[in-house]
Amino acid sequence: MAHTSELAGERRVALVTGASRGIGKAIALRLARDGRHVVLVSRSSGPLSEVKSLIESAGGSASVCAADLGDRASWQSAVERVVEERGRLDILVNNAGITRDNLSLRMTDDEWDEVIRVNLTSAFVACRAAARSMMKGRFGRIVNIASTSGVVGNAGQANYAAAKAGLIGLTKSLARELGGKGITANVVAPGFIETDMTSGLPEAVRSKVLEGMALKRLGVPDDIAEAVSYVASDGAGYLTGQVICVDGGLTMC
Ligand code: NAP
Predict the structure, then answer these.
(1) Is the entire prediction scored with pTM above 0.90?
(2) 230 a catalytic residue
């Protein structure tokens, strides 16, 4: 027997960070297509408004919330405001992320701190702020976007891999703490996906990655959105604490 049911006549509310481009934009469009009201978050409101228009012209529902995830206090207030204004938050996708790559011996404190703050601390802050509303509704889907770097490590990305591995520990702990309240928490870990983040990848690295990849192509944002759509669905109520690597068979972890 299913433990949850679709909301009668009401859209579930989803918040997606980093929704202005790349993977986050694809996730937002997909969740809107799934019938969710999507709250679009990133620093720049212009691109978010364009995503909102795309969603609305396809018959969906969305709103814009411009926020800097690196500013802990204002980010927490922004999530609390969304919950207050919409009266609920059912789906939280912590997708926004940055890289500041360097070899560990050369990595500066700023490079370390910024990546941990934006990629990991912001996700904790949002989960904590969202969990109260989810507990009240006895339903929640937390989806944290990590990376295969957080599972297998990556030379030159100690800060990024540590943040992404931290997201995995955070997610599994939340799954254990919140499971009794109908809230699931899972990680989707992309491999190499064609976005602005990977556009500067040198050709030699690209070829090497493809060589070790079962599916022999880099992923596209929709590959990740497809996985998130399922994990965030009402039907995925028995899936929690999992790390789903969507990486074309690169790591098979
Ligand atoms: P992207 O194209 O660089 O987009 C990053 C998004 O995060 C943008 O919407 C950006 O918007 C937002 N963002 C960055 N810093 C922010 C901040 N301080 N506050 C608010 N929003 C912020 O990245 P992507 O490739 O789509 O990656 C999305 C997620 O997937 C990231 O967590 C990344 O680590 C992960 N991932 C990507 C790949 C890949 O191959 N692309 C692989 C593994 C994991 P603004 O700049 O407007 O704020």
Answers:
(1) yes
(2) no
